[in-house]
Amino acid sequence: MQTIDALDSTLRSYLNPAQAQQVRRAYYFAEQAHFGQIRRTGEPYVTHPLAVAGILADMHMDHQSLMAAMLHDVIEDTGIEKDSIGSQFGPAVAELVDGVSKLTQMEFSSLAEKQAENFQKMALAMARDIRVILVKLADRLHNMRTLGVLPQDKARRIARETLEIYAPIAMRLGMNAVRMEFEDLGFSALYPMRASRIKAAIRASSGYRKELVDKIRHQIESTLEQEGHDVEVIGREKHLYSIYSKMKSKKKSFSEIMDIYAFRIIVDSVDTCYRVLGSVHSLYKPVPGEFSDYIAIPKANGYQSLHTVLMGMHGVPIEIQIRTREMEEMANNGIAAHWLYKSDSHSANGSHARAREWVQGLLEMQQRAGNSLEFIESVKIDLFPDEIYVFTPKGRILELPRGATAVDFAFAVHTDVGNSCVACRINRRLAPLSEPLQSGQTVEILTAPGARPNPSWFNYAVTAKARTNIRHFLKHQTREDSVALGKRLLDKALQAFDSTLEQLPEDRLQDYLANNDYSALEDLLEDIARGNRLPPITAQQILGEFVEPSESAERKLQPVAIRGTEGFMVTYARCCHPIPGDPIEGYLSSEKGVVVHRERCKNLMEMRENRERLVALRWDDQVQGEYLTELRIEVENRRGMIAVLATRINSMGVNIEKISTEDKDYQFTFVDLAMQVTNRVHLANIMKRLRTVNSVRRVSRLKNEAPARRVKPGANR
C-alpha cells in the first residue's frame, strides 16, 4: 500500500516544492472527508484516491490532475460541494473533480442507460478539460486492480465495460501501458478459465522461447553495434488478451500465435530509425507487404514507429518495431507523456491536438445523437479503428477505419460535404460510394447543391461521425416532410367542413392539442402524415362532434397533389408502380405515411373497406423525379437478346434497375425489365423504341390491376 510520503518523493522528482505541497494538502483534505469510510478490501477509503494519484504521478502528470485524483470521490461519497473544492483548491481542480464524478442523483430506466449517461457527462467534461479522462482512466485502473473483492456478477459487468469502453479510449489516447493492463485484468475477470489456461501455456513454453529470444536479440545487437549504432533491443512479450484476441480472430492455435517473436529497437533519432531499418533488412529477409511507416504518417492517436516483419533463422517470423525514446514514451503513455497542460489549444503538441480533435468529434456526435444509448454506440464504433490513410486531391492525409467508404471520407472532410455528396472519384476514376477505400488512395468527393443523405448509406458507412450525421439529417428531414404532408392532408379534410387550418379558432385547436397530449401542432401533423391519426376524423374532432360535412364543400374538394418532392412520408407502391400520368389514389399506412397506388391496383381494392384511410390524390402539374416501372417484353429465343435490349434502353439514358427472364416455350422468352422513367409519355417512347428491335414480339407494361367491371347491355339506357 502506497503512503503519501512515498508519493511525495515521486512528485518532488518532477514538480516544484509548492506544487508537491498542494497535492499533499489535497490528500489531507480527502483523508478528512472520507474519514470512517472503508473499502471492500478492508483498507481506509483514502487509499483508493492515493493509489489513483500514484498512477498519474508515474505518468508525470501535472499537480492539478493529481489534486483532482485525490478528491475525485469527495463530491459523490461525502457531503462536500463542488464550490467548497473550488474555494479550497481553485476552479480548475473543482471542474476536473466534477467531470470525473459519477451521476448518482439521477434515476435511469436501465443500467445501460445509466452507464451511457455517465459517459455522456464525462465526454462533455473532457471537452472542457482533456485531463478529466486521464484521471478517470487512472481511477478505473485502480478499481480493476482490486476487482477480486467484488461479487462475481458486478466484477464481470465492470470488466466488460472496461474492455468495451475504457481500454479502447486508452488506446485512442495512445496510452498503451494502461490499455494492456485494462485488457489483461478485464480478460481475467470476464473469462477466468481461459485466462488461466493461456497463462499456464505461456509458462510451459517460456524456457525454449527465452533461449531463442536471447539468441535473436544478441544477433541484432551485434550487427547494429558493428555498424556504429547505439541502440537498445528489447524482446517484446505478447500480453494475455492480445494472444486470446489473435487466437479468436485469426482462428489459430496457441502455438501458431506464439511462433512469432517480437522485438523493439530504441534509438536516439529519427534518422537512425531508418538506418537501423536498412541494417535489420540486410540481416534477415523482410516479408513483402509487411512494412508500415508510422513515423512519416503517425496513427490517429499520435503513435509513431517503423514496423517490419522479417524471416529469421530456421524460418522463424520476427516482428520488429523501431522508434526513438520520445516515441517509446509516447507509445506507452500517449497524451500523458511529458504532460504540460496549456489552455490555449493552438499551443498543444501533435498528440494533444489529435486528442482534442477527437473529443470535439465526440461533442459533435453527442449533440446530434438522439439519446445517450445511441451516443455510446457511436462512440464504440469510433473506438475500434484499424486505420487506413487516404489523401484529399490537395494532399491532406485523413485517417479512417478499415472498411471505410467514400461516404465516411466525405463526412471526415466536413459535415456539409457529406450531406451534399453525390458521387466520388478514387484515384481519378469514378467509383461507387460503397466501395471500401484502401491506404494510399486519393479520393475526390463530387457534391451537388440540392443533394441530401441517402438512407442506403447506412449499409456501408462505418465511422461514427458519418452514421451520426446521416441519422440526424434523416430524422430532421423526415419530420419536416411529415409536418408538410400532414398539413396538406388535414387542410383537405377540413375543406369538407368549409374550413381550413388557418381559419380554425385558436382556442379550439389548442384545446384539442392539450386533450390529446400534443405539445405543438407540428406533433399532430406528423402523426397524421405517419398514418397514426386519420385526417377526416381529426378534422371532425377539432371542429366538434356534431359538425356535419358540407355537401357543397365536398363537391369542391380537390385531391391532394403529389409533386414527387415530399420525401420519406410518401412512398410508391411496389405492387403497381404508379408513375406520373397514371390515375392514382393513396392509402394512409401507419409509419409509412401515404402509400401511392394506381387507381385500379388489386391491393388497393382490398383496402377500400377502410375508407377513412383512403386519400384522393392527383399528380401535380410540376411533378419531378424518376419513378420505377416494369415492362414485360416477349422476345424470340436468340443469343444476346438481353444485351441488345439493355443497349437500346441505355442509349435513351434510362437506368435499368433489374432484369429477369422466364421461358414461355421453346421459341419465346419473357424478359422483365425494371427501370426509372419520368412519366407515361417517357414510358410510351421507350416502349415504342423497343418494339422496333428485331425479334421483339410484344412489349407491355406490368400492371397489378383488378379486371374492369363489365357493364350489362342496356344498363345505362
Features:
20 strands, Beta Polymerase, domain 2, Hypothetical protein af1432, Ubiquitin-like (UB roll), globular, 717 residues, disordered C terminus
Topology at a glance:
Layout: H1 4-11, H2 17-33, H3 47-58, H4 63-71, H5 74-77, H6 82-89, H7 91-100, H8 111-128, H9 131-145, H10 152-172, H11 176-190, H12 192-226, E1 232-236, H13 240-249, H14 254-258, E2 261-267, H15 270-283, E3 285-286, E4 292-293, E5 306-311, E6 317-324, H16 325-333, H17 350-368, H18 372-382, E7 387-391, E8 397-401, H19 406-413, H20 415-419, E9 421-426, E10 429-431, E11 443-447, H21 464-495, H22 506-515, H23 521-529, H24 535-543, H25 551-556, E12 560-562, E13 570-572, E14 584-589, E15 593-598, H26 602-607, E16 614-619, E17 627-636, H27 641-650, E18 656-663, E19 668-677, H28 680-691, E20 696-701
Parallel strand pairs: 2-6, 12-16, 13-15
Antiparallel strand pairs: 1-2, 3-5, 4-5, 5-6, 7-8, 9-10, 9-11, 14-15, 14-16, 17-19, 17-20, 18-19
Describe the structure.
This protein is α+β, with helices and mostly antiparallel strands. The protein folds into five domains: 4-190, Orthogonal Bundle (Hypothetical protein af1432), CATH 1.10.3210; 199-336, 2-Layer Sandwich (Beta Polymerase, domain 2); 385-453, Roll (Ubiquitin-like (UB roll)); 472-619, no CATH class; 627-701, Alpha-Beta Plaits (2-Layer Sandwich). It contains 28 helices and 20 strands. Strands 1, 2, 3, 4, 5 and 6 form a six-stranded mixed sheet that branches. A five-stranded mixed sheet has the order 12-16-14-15-13. Strand 5 and strand 6 (317-324) form a beta hairpin. Helix 8 (111-128) crosses helix 17, helix 8 (111-128) packs across helix 18 (372-382) and helix 21 packs across helix 23. The longest helix has 35 residues, at 192-226. It is globular, with a radius of gyration of 34 Å. The N and C termini lie far apart (107 Å). The model is unreliable at 102-109, 340-348 and 710-717 (pLDDT under 50).
